[in-house]
TrEMBL record:
Protein name per the record: Aminoglycoside phosphotransferase domain-containing protein
Domain Aminoglycoside phosphotransferase residues, every copy: 56-268
Pfam families linked to this entry: APH
InterPro entries found in the cross-reference section: AGP_Transferase, Aminoglycoside_PTrfase, Kinase-like_dom_sf
Amino acid sequence: MEDRLRRWIRDDFGLDVIELTRIDHGADAAATVWQARTATEPRQYAVKWSGGGTGAALQTTAYLAANNIPGVPSPVTTTTGELWSEHEGKRLSLTPWIPGTRAAASGLTTDQWTSYGALLGRVHALEPPPALVAALPPLNPINARMPSLARSIEHRLRTEPPADSLEADLARIWEANQKTITALLDLAADLEPPNGPRVICHADPHLGNVLVDPSTIHLIDWDDAVLAPREQDLLFMLGGMGSLGPTTHEQRRAFFQGYGEVTIDRTRLTYYRCARALEDVALWSEQALQGPDREDCLEILRDALGPDGLAVRTLS
């Protein structure tokens, strides 16, 4: 794979790769990411080969960076001026490497929460051009298949003997939280996609997608970008995300101090919370069945369904 990747980068982007290092951060099973070192300034690049999301993500980051939104990495163009190339049905894209610390590991200081709020506020305030409006989906495509995925997992756990002890643990988690999961599915069936003013949304702006360097907060991994009401992003700042979002009143206050004054529409918030809670339940359960990192997936699922998790908060 690495030899093919080096050849593609040379042919498509005109860069000779000296060294490739696989990066395992992130839960996106459809994407593979490498750190590439080249002989050409800025020398280091993040290389993503992705079959998830849409090409609109790269159009979005290029537009935001061109409008001087700090902390949004602009894609490197190919030798023919494109934002990505395609190989084996997946998009190959490059951005300059950001030598920052992942905020999911380090957390954010009060001042950094304010800076992050200001960054997301600037993204939401920027008017998208007609071409980007046409390219961005109004809903995260992942959300549409979550109810059926959850029901198929439920059926398997109820009707088939567990293949191993980890699957038996997963079945026990579902049994213990059956009322919550059923209530989420019922709520999702009743809710209509929200109307209202639409803005450019990252759709997954938790701290796992935030990098911190001494001067800048960076928001990366825009694969799920959508054109949606701002509650799509702000749900991550209003509780239920554990350490991937603000965990104290002071942190939330600091974020919104930077973001600016906003009135949250509770109906829209419930819709996006429900969609995300179902995504967490279904996708982490699926990965607990199929791997990788099955034990870690079980722990994340327990947290998502716990008393402080997003599922319970959605239904309260």
